[in-house]
Design goal:
Number of helices: 11
Oligomer: single chain
Strand content: 15-25%
C-alpha cells in the first residue's frame, strides 16, 4: 500500500550527488523530500509534485524523507530518454518507477567481452557485512594497513534500491576512499550495474581492478525480530558467491555494546545465522582482540570473543582470525563520513565499528589470510 501526497515545492537544496533535497508544502504540512534527478527529473520552486510518503508517515528508521514520484505539470523537467542509449537491464522491475540501465556485462557495453567467460576472482578479498553502516568502518580498517588499496563496494538490494540514497557512498567517493560502487539485483545507480552478486564480484576484479571488495545491502534493512526474517541473510549468500568464484571470503561481524535489543547485544544473531548457517563455504571471521581502555567496549569485545568460539565450534567452515584493535579507534575517528549505526556513533557504540574495522584490516593484509 502506498500513501500519496501532492504539494508544491517551496525550496530546492543541492543535496548530494544525484539527489536534490526539497521542502514540499502539502495539505498535511511541509515535508522534506528527495528527488532522484536521473529517475524523475529536476523540480523547481513552485512545481506541483506527487510524493510517496509511505515510510515517512510510518516513522521508519530510513524514512525521514518523502520521495518525489513525478512532476506532472512540467514535462520539460522530466528525464529525456535517449533512443540510442545502450543497455537492457531493468531495475526495480515492474514497479511504477522501474528504470533501464546498461549492465556491466551487457552485450552492448564495452566490458562484455571481458566478462563473457569470466569465472574467477583470483583470491580477491571479499568482506561481507550485515549493515550499510559497516562500510566506512571496514574501509577505515583497511586503509590503516593499505592506504592505497582500490576498494569496490557491491550494494545489494536488501535495503535502499537507489545508490544515490547513500550519502556515505557519495562522501567516501569524494574522499578517495572508494573506487567504485556496483549495484546488483534490483538496486541501481552505481558506477556499474550488475545482474547479481556473482557478476558484480567479477566486475570488481576484472573491470575495476579492485584490491578489496565490500558487499552489503544499501542503507536501511528489513527485520521482523525472528530468527530468519531479516534481509542481512544476504551477507552469507555474498560470501558463498565469493568462495564459488575463487575469492577470499571475510565475514564482518555485527556487534553492539549499546543496542537495546538483547538479540543484537554482543554478537548479533544476524551474524550467527548468516555466517553459521547460510554460508556454506570456508570463510575467515576476524575477531577484535586486545583492550581499548573503555570498560563497556572491552566487556562487549570479550563477550564477542566467547560467542565466536561457540559459533566456530559448531560451524566447521568458519575460521577465527584474531586482529588487535591497537590504533583502530583513531583510524575510525578519522573517517571522512560520520560513523553511525542505528543512530549510534563511535562514542556510543565503539564495539560495532571496531568489529567492522578488523574485518577491513584482515582483508587488506595478505599475511593475515
Amino acid at each position: 500500500m502506498i500513501t500519496w501526497r501532492q504539494g508544491a515545492v517551496r525550496s530546492v537544496d543541492p543535496g548530494w550527488e544525484g539527489v536534490l533535497v526539497l521542502q514540499v508544502e502539502t495539505d498535511a504540512g511541509t515535508v522534506p523530500a528527495l528527488a532522484y534527478v536521473d529517475v524523475v527529473g529536476s523540480p523547481q520552486v513552485g512545481d506541483r509534485v506527487l510524493l510517496n510518503v509511505t515510510a515517512l508517515e510510518r516513522g521508519l528508521g530510513t524514512g525521514g524523507y518523502a520521495v518525489l514520484v513525478a512532476i506532472p505539470d512540467r514535462p520539460q523537467a522530466w528525464p529525456q530518454p535517449d533512443p540510442d542509449s545502450p543497455g537492457h537491464l531493468v531495475k526495480a522491475r515492474y514497479t511504477p518507477l522501474q528504470t533501464m540501465v546498461l549492465g556491466v556485462d551487457d552485450p552492448e557495453g564495452e566490458h562484455h567481452a571481458t566478462l563473457a567467460d569470466a569465472d574467477d576472482i583470483a583470491g580477491l578479498p571479499v568482506v561481507a557485512a550485515d549493515l550499510h553502516s559497516a562500510l566506512p568502518a571496514i574501509l577505515a580498517g583497511a586503509r590503516s594497513v593499505a592506504p592505497q588499496a582500490r576498494v569496490a563496494y557491491v550494494m545489494t538490494d536488501g535495503g535502499a534500491l537507489p545508490a544515490q540514497f547513500s550519502r556515505t557512498c557519495a562522501h567516501l567517493r569524494a574522499a578517495g576512499w572508494l573506487e567504485a560502487v556496483i549495484t546488483t539485483g534490483q538496486a541501481y545507480g552505481g558506477d556499474l550495474e550488475a545482474v547479481g552478486v556473482h557478476s558484480a564480484l567479477l566486475a570488481a576484479h576484472h573491470v575495476v581492478g579492485a584490491d578489496l571488495v565490500v558487499v552489503s545491502q544499501g542503507p536501511g534493512n528489513l527485520g521482523t525480530g525472528t530468527r530468519w526474517g531479516f534481509s542481512g541473510v544476504s551477507a552469507g549468500e555474498a560470501l558463498n558467491a565469493a568462495a564459488v568464484l575463487g575469492g577470499r571470503p571475510v565475514a564482518s561481524l555485527r556487534v553492539s555494546e549499546a543496542d537495546p535489543r538483547p538479540r543484537h547485544r554482543g554478537l548479533s544473531h544476524h551474524s550467527a545465522t548468516a555466517y553459521g548457517r547460510v554460508l556454506a563455504h570456508p570463510a575467515q571471521v576476524p575477531v577484535p582482540t586486545g583492550t581499548t581502555g573503555r570498560a563497556s567496549t572491552d566487556a562487549c569485545l570479550a563477550q564477542v570473543s566467547s560467542a565466536v568460539d561457540r559459533l566456530v565450534s559448531t560451524a566447521g567452515h568458519l575460521h577465527r582470525a584474531d586482529v588487535p584493535v591497537d590504533g583502530l579507534l583513531d583510524a575510525l575517528a578519522a573517517s571522512p563520513v560520520r560513523l553511525s549505526t542505528m543512530g549510534r556513533g563511535l562514542e556510543e557504540d565503539a564495539a560495532a565499528f571496531l568489529a567492522a574495522a578488523v574485518a577491513g584490516v584482515h582483508a587488506a593484509r595478505p599475511e593475515l589470510s
